[in-house]
Amino acid sequence: SSGINAEYGGKGASFKITHLETPSYFHKYLVGRGGAVKKRLENETGTEITIPKPYENKDSIQVKHWDEDSLASLEIRVNDTVERARRQERPTHFISIPVYSNAISENLGKFEDLVQEMIHPHHVQNPEKLHLTVSVLKLFSKNEIEAAISALNEFAPRIPYILCGRPLRGSLKNLEIMNDEPDSVRVLYSEVTLTDESDRLQQLADQCLEFLIEKGLVDEHTDTHNRKDVKLHCTLINTRWTGSGPQTFDATQILSDDWELTNFGDFVLEKMQLNSMQKEHKGKEGYESLLTLKLV
Question: How much is the pTM?
Answer without folding.
Answer: 0.85
